[in-house]
Amino acid sequence: MVSKPDTSKPLHMVRLQPTGTEFGVYEGETVLNAGFRQGVALIHGCKEGQCSACKAVLLDGDAEMLKYSTFALPEAERDSNHVLLCRTIPFSDLEIELLMFDEELLSHSVAVSEFVGEVAIVEALTSDIRRLVVTLDRPMTFFAGQYADITLPDSATTRSYSMGNPPSDPRRLEFIIKKYQGGRFSSQLDTLAPGATVTVSGPYGTCFRREHRDEAPLLLIGGGSGLAPLLAILEDQIAEAPQRPIRLFYGARTQADLFWQKRFQQLQSELPDFRFVPALSAASEDGQWSGERGFIHEVVQRGLKAEQIGDGADAYACGPPPLIDAVMPVLQMAGVEPDRIYFDKFTPATN
Predict the structure, then answer these.
(1) Which of 18, 132, 137, 212 is deepest in the core (most CB within 10 A)?
(2) Model pTM?
């Protein structure tokens, strides 16, 4: 969650190049959190120094770096003044060169806020997937595909989860959460009673639905709890332009890991050009499964080749890093332009 800045500490100014954006950062506050607080939409990922999405170059000024992964920022890059904005603490005014920035993202800036949430529903979708519905004390402005931080009651445990619903009801947030044995957050879901209070902070994330040509194909690719932001994007798109060609590819291990199949089948019958393509990587050989088999990137590759639907498409991929890394080259080889590929890597929590 975005910590409240200590306003008793010096306020330093940060200037971003090449956009010329300027905003204040309190000493002790990270550059990324200061941006969140003031509605400056910077490209980011894990917010914990693990993924390198917010990598930039410190051109001028004094700053220190909080603990980070050398996978995200190798020593050679650190020696050449590269920094991670989520780990950068200023001691003076800073000038920073952004290595990645998105004009459309900057135009969708929303200041991160903290909300009080009340648990409405905790529902088992599979043996290890839960649906959590939270009602907020006031509306949250967000875009379909973004995520929020949730802190459990009487706990310091905070985790990030994508909203699985579009922003049409901004006081109701739905999350699809994978349970992990011993998980500090997910293992408590089944004991989280309706009416419990949680703290919600958001919105975060750059993998939100863009308003591109409605005639261009929309490709949605995910696995596990990565279905949540794709559902939000799907429903948001349907509400605006249901005629758009849409393909939803979803990877799971076995049939027991699939859910809401009837929901997607109904959408296939209602929409003019929508297909749901589930794929199983460990399907049994008993003949009960007649659908796609293999890893999801393999299925996407076969599907896009068969339909010749990748050229000019918009693609959104959400799930664990290996899934994203495998899907990216498949999409580009199918003709999807790199600047039309949006992704959200679900990096594991570090605490």
Answers:
(1) 132
(2) 0.84
